[in-house]
Design brief:
The structure is a homodimer of 605-residue chains.
Chain A (H helix, E strand, L loop, with lengths): L6 H8 L21 E14 L2 E8 L2 E7 L5 H9 L5 E10 L14 E12 L16 H6 L1 H4 L3 H23 L3 E2 L17 E3 L7 E3 L5 H9 L4 E9 L11 E10 L3 H20 L9 E3 H8 L12 E3 L1 H4 L5 H8 L3 E7 L7 H13 L6 E6 L2 E3 L8 H11 L6 E7 L1 H18 L11 E5 L4 E4 L4 E4 L14 H4 L8 E6 L2 E8 L4 H10 L4 H14 L7 E7 H9 L29 H6 L2 E3 L3
Parallel strand pairs in A: 3-5, 6-9, 11-17
Antiparallel strand pairs in A: 1-2, 1-4, 2-3, 4-5, 7-8, 9-10, 10-22, 12-13, 13-16, 14-15, 14-16, 17-20, 18-19, 20-21, 21-22
Helix pairs in contact in A: 5-7, 5-17, 8-13, 15-16
């Protein structure tokens, strides 16, 4: 509710004049001493020492202390008394160098004050619902509702300024490397993976819908067919999925595609970009080429396809040790094509029963039935399962793990990917307990390659493309498409930074015949392929070059480079995990009139 | 339909290897003579002179002539025979300097050929549905359906490369001037002007909808409240309106907002940008400040708020001449608060009856009842209405228009804006006939200022905001809001280039009280304002700085700088005037399953 003030007060306030600033609040230095200046900004803090009023005046660029002295300008002093935090003011004054003992080295303007000659209140402010400072004590929901105030906090300003710098660095890099920035449509066609498409009803064409892009994949491939050779775009994409902590319904991608390339060419371009970002943001010289690991190796060693390599703590496969074991759990796992995987936690043999129980609970949450543990001591192994193991098994085990007295060995056995995945979770947990990660840990990049092309879905009894249906299989063994498609590897790759997947891409299929074959393997009928992707298939018939590309999750990149832990803190106006904007309360109800115009109605059931 | 080839042929083709190019097709010069090179590209043209085959090999960067000599490499020659236009090939060969008499100065690579050692066909191509050349003979619908082929035409490649350059220039300029690039949401709240909103049903929240932004207006104002001080973004916006020739349902804006500014500050920033673009794209030194004209003057002189000032041909108001005229049409117009407006067409007194009839038809199409014409000769005036005019009126007329013998005077009289608007159309028509515009005409920029704040709508009997409801009225006479709002001018401005509005903006209201007052004048109830804009009004209570900004129609800017005449030719994948993408056939029908997920159904009626 707006409370109207008396008309003449309002008019006076509205007509308030102010001068253009001569400097920002982060700019003045002793060299400006005795200059007349104009500053505009917000009252960050006010101290009224009876006579003299000290104001920290804040804008995006910094904070300057301005001083209102009653004898110097009584009128300004009178107005100054009215000031409260977050008032917007314009001041004219004179720069004064501080005496040496009052210099504040923590702020860039700490060597000067501004003595106020004139003070104008440009706008008043009610008391904000939370303090405008980094260590805010408010719940996130309240901060999101008042996002425009939350965004005044220095930490968010800093993150968004970093994001700004990253946009510029990324575009400059691609521009320099002959990539063309091209915008692709936001209103496009709904695709077969359409279950997660946001749809937009057409007013002009009754009963028809556009879809918002989950990615500009088909368009960037068409741009290669058009001969643009190198394309990039920083672009919004949309996915209407059940939100997870680090997902947003709309997210930003750096989208890249190149013609006449193979994997190494894409890697070279991406590594160049990473060099720039490491250097500019972290002042680090990134060594290239970036380490590569196949999907299979990544799982075997780290139990994930996005391992955090800032610490070691590798998993080790013990199948050869236990293939003839008397311990049924291990033997069965090996003989059924599964895995026995172990992790050596150095120096943890002293873990209490309670500590080990907690680890067991942890892996059970990840789906494991239980956790086998073994404490290594000078006499051998202390473990509940020790009695099931032969002596040479125990020796082999210790030897093959290079375990030492005082170590704790943790083992899971079972189906391969599932078990390794649980071990991956355990690895992260142990790294936390062992405090292997610290703020000084150097960031670590990794390429993961040779992903499986297809995933078999037990439920629907068919293959799905692990990346997307346009991903090229490895050409060396493309014949497997006809005989054993599940074994085929893709020319796909992910870029992993500190355990986060920050980019993923592939070399694409550029032959319409191979693409048709691929659709067939995926159980997409000719008719369906024609209807959904006809234009892409058609395009391939008119001279499509070999091409490939990659897409970066920009929000996540900003998060990591900013040292933040929440995607939401990298986005000016984010949505909650349930896809709601608490600030403007969208999505919201619309009028019957609007729905009528769009030829839709809301379902009753 | 894909015709499957024999399996072994397909596999051989799919596995085809090619080398990374050493050069692009626009790069080789005599200094490369005798080098071994690899080029990848498309067959632009093939000439088979019985023995020797000449191929123009094309990529984005240029065209290089490659020569396949049968005796030099019989195998390559055999493959070369199969080539047709738009085949994708990779060649290895040796650069050969051309003899002087074969040098082609028109292309950058015209001094060399490449003699082919090895030739690989990377992909075949069917005959395209139209020729890949600038002077294409196909209808636009066919070109849009095969947009990926249309985009191979040099003129479209050139326009999109210019667009790429403009993105970089614009962002570099704003970055250099401390503007922060911030992305605003695409999924937002439907606003009162919501009739033209594209809506997006929420899957998670039944019966609720997001809207796509018609502009990021509220967000950029909130960013000013947040203290970001200077914001910019090149951003997609959406409007579901009946399409006109130069409109697209999704369009791109350069969006700008600044704090602690008045009109001159915004102008200074924009003029700096224009200087950069004029210099970089047109090699012109733009003189600043850019000419300014009030809305009233623009209409009076040019009959439009976006006059093309590359030619003069000013309108002249004759009210003072005719206020006591015996010619009722003129006198009534003057006395009813209307206008009598004239245009002198120099040297057109010789126009035939037929020519004048065509002009009459032209203004009738614009809504005029008829056109008054007068031919000036040495004896005075020859006109069907001459007999109604007194002698001193005729003399005054000629004098006040500075008309000369041989000139043709064209006059319309009636309601002010309507009549001036028709005269504006007539002015453009006469400029065409007089060929006042030619390719060498220097581009002309103009600020139009002092727009009316409000427009009265006869039908709904209420005021509408001429720009939008956040536009600040002129503060000098803000009291008119209470007494005679229709007379109030806005602190709004448009930037006009060659008769096209390329940008529009305003200083905004930053007082929640004035904003509330404005909503009241616009007939938006407190409840409605609260519901729709509550978050913005609320934000204004916590210290909103004075702020203003501007938004550029980027597509139109590219069109003008590229010298194009259609917005569609500046967009990679445009939609038709009925908002359809002919390439992917969107909007399209979606499955009942999808609609169910979104809790909507299509209306029966």
């Amino acid at each position: 509710m707006i409370n109207f003030r008396p008309q003449n007060y309002l008019m006076k306030k509205i007509k308030m004049k102010f001068k253009r600033r001569t400097h920002t609040c982060g700019e003045l230095k002793p060299t400006n001493a005795d200059e007349k200046v104009v500053l505009n900004g917000w009252v960050n803090r006010k101290r009224d020492l009876g006579g003299v009023i000290f104001i920290e005046l804040r804008d995006r660029y910094g904070v300057t202390q301005v001083i209102i002295e009653p004898e110097h300008n009584p009128e300004a002093h009178q107005i100054g008394k009215e000031l409260r935090n977050e008032f917007v003011v314009s001041i004219e004054g004179t720069v004064r160098q501080r005496p040496d003992d009052q210099i504040n080295k923590d702020v860039t303007t700490g060597e000067i004050d501004v003595i106020v000659d004139k003070l104008v209140i440009l706008n008043e402010a009610e008391t904000p619902p939370f303090s405008i400072k980094d260590e805010v004590d408010a719940f996130e929901d309240l901060r999101l509702k008042y996002r425009y105030l939350d965004l005044r906090r220095p930490v968010l300003q800093k993150t968004l300024l970093l994001r700004h710098r990253m946009y510029q660095l990324v575009r400059k890099y691609f521009d320099k490397n002959s990539f063309v920035e091209i915008e692709t449509p936001v209103l496009m066609k709904s695709t077969p993976e359409g279950a997660r498409d946001y749809l937009v009803p057409s007013r002009i064409h009754k009963g028809k819908f556009y879809a918002l892009p989950q990615s500009p994949q088909t368009y960037k491939q068409l741009l290669m067919v058009s001969g643009f050779d190198r394309y990039f775009q920083i672009v919004k994409c949309f996915r209407d999925e059940d939100q997870r902590a680090d997902r947003q319904p709309e997210f930003t991608q750096i989208d890249v595609e190149m013609s006449f390339v193979d994997i190494d060419d894409v890697f070279e371009i991406v590594e160049g970009l990473m060099k720039v970002l490491f250097k500019d943001i972290w002042q680090l010289e990134l060594q290239t080429p970036i380490q590569r690991l196949t999907f299979d190796d990544a799982f075997e060693k780290y139990g994930t396809d996005k391992p955090d390599l800032r610490f070691d703590l590798e998993l080790q496969t013990l199948n050869s040790v236990f293939e003839k074991s008397g311990f049924k759990v291990f033997k069965d796992a090996v003989n059924n094509g599964g895995v026995v995987s172990a992790l050596v936690a150095p120096g943890c043999a002293a873990y209490s029963r309670n500590q080990i129980d907690n680890l067991t609970t942890h892996v059970k949450k990840l789906g494991a039935k239980g956790l086998v543990w073994m404490k290594v001591n000078e006499n051998g192994i202390d473990s509940p399962v020790a009695k099931f193991l032969a002596d040479d098994e125990k020796q082999n085990l210790i030897k093959s793990l290079s375990a030492k007295s005082g170590d704790l060995i943790l083992i899971l056995a079972g189906k391969r990917l599932k078990t390794l995945n649980q071990m991956g979770g355990l690895r992260i947990e142990m790294a936390k307990r062992l405090e292997l990660l610290n703020p000084d840990s150097k960031p670590k990049l990794l390429w993961v390659t040779d992903f499986p092309l297809l995933e078999w879905d037990e439920e629907t009894n068919r293959f799905y493309a692990m990346h997307h249906p346009f991903t090229s299989p490895r050409l060396e063994d493309v014949e497997l498409l006809d005989t054993d498609p599940g074994k085929l590897k893709a020319r796909a790759y992910d870029l992993v930074l500190n355990g986060h997947e920050i980019a993923g891409g592939s070399i694409r299929i550029h032959s319409s015949e191979l693409q048709a074959k691929m659709f067939k393997v995926l159980g997409i009928s000719k008719g369906e392929a024609e209807k959904k992707f006809g234009f892409l298939m058609n395009a391939f018939k008119y001279g499509a070059p070999p091409h490939g590309g990659i897409a970066f999750g920009f929000d996540r990149m900003v998060m990591i480079f900013a040292g933040e832990t929440s995607i939401r803190d990298t986005i000016a106006f984010p949505k909650t995990t349930s896809a709601v904007s608490l600030m403007d309360d969208s999505p919201s109800e619309v009028s019957e009139e609007q729905l009528k115009e769009l030829h839709i109605r809301i379902r009753e059931e």
